[in-house]
Amino acid sequence: MEKLSSGEIQLRINNIKESVEAIKNxxxxxxxxxxxxxxxxxGIYKQLEFAIQNILDICSLINSDLDLGISVSYKETIENLxxxxxxxxKLKGDLEFLNKLRDVLIYDYDLISDEIAFKNFQExxxxxxxxxxxxxxxxxxx
Length: 142
What we know:
The protein is mainly alpha-helical. The protein is 76% helix and 0% strand. The N and C termini lie close together (8 Å).
């Protein structure tokens, strides 16, 4: 898609992949280990936040590049992508969830339950992976 900021999108996709790798390489196998990581645990959460922020930035770039309408929130941006059928219902749900998770990571970090987060990290990474597949297909013109 020639209208897309493909260089900027590719850069953000690479950032997401690096964050996912950092999470995978540093996420321990047990909850007890995770809880004992101290500042390294904060780094894992920060990598998750960074990956999600890059996803939402890509969505905003696509929305802007394709003139899908003005949006004042990521929620509206996601809705715009869905309304023009760029994303399906599953990816829309993933993006809406990741947007909410990002807000928690930024604004309510002290409320995060390590138990719940640790149990769900695989799902978070799968949601990010589904977006990466979408982003790469989009850049390939699919």
